[in-house]
Amino acid sequence: METPTYRYNLDLLRQTIDVAIEESSRYGYNLHYAIKANSNPKILETIAQRNLGADCVSGNEIKAALEAGFLANTIVFAGVGKTNNEIELAIDARIKCIHIESFEELLVVNQIAANKKHIMPIAFRLNPNLDAGTHKYITTGVSQNKFGLSTNELTEAIRVLPTLSAVELIGFHFHIGSQILNISKFADLAAYASKFYSGYKHLQLNYLNVGGGLGIDYENPILNPIPNFAEYFEAFANNLTIDNHIEVHFEPGRSIVGQCGELVTRVLYIKEGNERSFAVVDAGMNNLIRPALYQAKHSIYCESSSNEYTEVYDVVGPICESSDTFGSAIPLPKLMRGDLLAIRSAGAYGESMSSRYNLRSITPCLFTLKQEQLVM
Ligand SMILES: *Cc1c(COP(=O)(O)O)cnc(C)c1O
Prior knowledge:
Blueprint: E1 5-9, H1 10-25, E2 30-34, H2 41-49, E3 53-56, H3 59-68, E4 75-77, H4 84-93, E5 97-100, H5 103-115, E6 120-126, H6 151-160, E7 167-174, H7 184-198, E8 207-209, H8 229-239, E9 247-250, H9 254-257, E10 261-272, E11 277-281, H10 290-294, E12 300-302, E13 311-316, E14 325-332, E15 340-343, E16 365-368, E17 374-375
Parallel strand pairs: 1-16, 2-3, 2-9, 3-4, 4-5, 5-6, 6-7, 7-8, 8-9, 11-13
Antiparallel strand pairs: 1-10, 10-11, 10-15, 12-15, 13-14, 16-17
The structure holds pyridoxal-5'-phosphate.
Pyridoxal-5'-phosphate binds next to helix 9.
């Protein structure tokens, strides 16, 4: 087996989607998979086949979504820095909604839509100022960060809206962060959105988008391969008090794909340091950047040995950066050069964030159904 390689279990992916659909459809909720979590074409096709919508943050993601079979009228588009080309693409493709993140963007979208003689459905992205309690790089809903319209911009946007003939405001969009395991944060968001909507009854909104952010269990992926979607959607159902005719939309990314992928890597060298032992592996932060970028911890196991986990190693990559470490003091069996390790829970923000730093090769991937059953 070539290494490093992303290995995806499509059975687990399908089961996860099925649970997400089952639990959300109880309340008539709509799901848009956040493409940026993993945009591998086969993963996208698998998700599109289950009829989820797509949440995109670039023009190329919109193209990838359409190519994978997502329907245009289920695609939503967010991002603070949409270019003219990307806005044109979104309008030409007739996607469902553009999420507007600044006052200036509102004027640009209106202008481009007017040129194309189309009335573009839009939602304003807002910052509920709720601290999701996650790593600061993945907290998006507090007022210091760059996402969404500020209160002043919102007032101004609503004031000029009647003069903008090529956009139609359908609702608001919130996204408070990622890897959120404290379900009460979502209850808070639902309560916040409900209160907010009650102040805008006169706008006749029919759309509410509450973003993504549900976390996965990185510590015990074997015990919890599928996130607790039941509890998640119930938190919204119990706390949303908006009118029944308003459609509720979600943008799950990590919770759909996080657990179905592993990064398989080979031990190149065992190196005895002065204080600890290093397992130098052939995967680096260019293949999986989460540990280096967010101090994220991933469970790691050895698949080439069935011996007891009697040793501890720092599992490090080959890249010329000290942050190129997958974990410190990881319990593992006694390793040898050539052993295969797998880094679990790498399906989200793994392959999609990989790069060619140090001119390393593009990370290949393979697909399995059950463990070891390969699909080409
Ligand atoms: C990244 C992102 C998501 C997905 O977040 P997850 O934590 O992966 O569920 C959803 N909506 C928006 C706007 C995003 O930027």
